[in-house]
């Protein structure tokens, strides 16, 4: 019974090194240019900043990644950055919630060269309040080290995206799309 309680109560430590050991693409990954988009208000109370410190330690220990940190300062910043500067990077890691990733996806796909921009790998480190996409990908909100290791491993998974146009406004959705009654209910 005591062993069962220990297993139940003691948190499991994710072994990043073991997860990445034998990664065939490591030499290619060492040269990757990685942008980290940090939403400093995601999750509240400095949560995303604390998560960034943990992720940065893992990324720096992995190898010669060319890391660039971009902190958003207001709504729309991540979208604007992705629309203007994302092509300078091989991978974009979003530390925030679904809204942060939503902005990056919409920035990338609003470009006239969206086919090229869509080839950039995206990774999510859950730091928001809902973290719906991370959960859909099998990453629990408290699995920061695992999410960072998955981002480093470089194994990608395609993501379905819906394009919605209403008048002159176009939006891209990757998690869900709702209109009318459902949208009103979701926000109440």
Detailed description of the structure:
The chain is an alpha/beta fold and 188 residues long. The chain has 10 helices and 6 strands. It has helices spanning 2-9, 16-20, 26-29, 47-62, 77-85, 98-109, 114-117, 132-136, 144-153, 181-186; strands at 33-38, 66-71, 91-96, 121-126, 162-166, 169-173. A 4-stranded parallel sheet has the order 2-1-3-4, with helices on both faces. It has a two-stranded antiparallel ribbon with strand order 5-6. α5 packs parallel to α6. The protein is globular. It starts with a helix and ends with a helix. Residues 1-11 have low confidence and may be disordered.
Q: What is the H-and-E element order?
A: HHHEHEHEHHEHHEEH
User: Uncertain regions: pLDDT < 50 for 5+ in a row?
Assistant: 1-11
How much strand content do the residues show? 15-25%
**What is the typical, i.e. mean, pLDDT?**
83
Shape: globular
How would you write the strand order of the largest sheet? 2-1-3-4
Q: Which structural class should the secondary elements be placed in?
A: alpha/beta
Descriptive labels:
single chain, 188 residues, 4-stranded parallel beta sheet
Would you spell out the secondary-structure blueprint of this structure?
Layout lengths: L1 H8 L6 H5 L5 H4 L3 E6 L8 H16 L3 E6 L5 H9 L5 E6 L1 H12 L4 H4 L3 E6 L5 H5 L7 H10 L8 E5 L2 E5 L7 H6 L2
Parallel strand pairs: 1-2, 1-3, 3-4
Antiparallel strand pairs: 5-6
Helix pairs in contact: 4-9, 5-6
């Amino acid at each position: 019974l005591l062993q069962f309680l220990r297993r139940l109560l003691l948190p499991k430590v994710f072994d990043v090194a073991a997860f990445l050991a034998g990664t065939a693409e490591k030499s290619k990954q060492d040269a990757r240019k990685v942008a980290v988009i940090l939403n400093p208000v995601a999750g509240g109370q400095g949560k995303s900043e604390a998560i960034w410190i943990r992720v940065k330690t893992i990324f720096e220990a992995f190898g010669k990644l060319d890391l660039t940190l971009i902190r958003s300062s207001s709504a729309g910043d991540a979208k604007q950055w992705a629309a203007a500067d994302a092509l300078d990077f091989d991978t974009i890691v979003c530390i925030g919630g679904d809204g942060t990733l939503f902005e990056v996806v919409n920035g990338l796909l609003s470009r006239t060269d969206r086919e090229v921009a869509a080839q950039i790998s995206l990774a999510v480190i859950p730091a928001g309040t809902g973290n719906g996409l991370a959960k859909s990908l099998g990453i629990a909100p408290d699995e920061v080290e695992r999410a960072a290791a998955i981002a480093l491993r470089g194994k990608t998974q395609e993501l379905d995206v819906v394009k919605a146009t209403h008048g002159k406004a176009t939006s891209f959705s990757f998690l869900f799309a709702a209109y009318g009654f459902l949208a009103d209910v979701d926000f109440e």
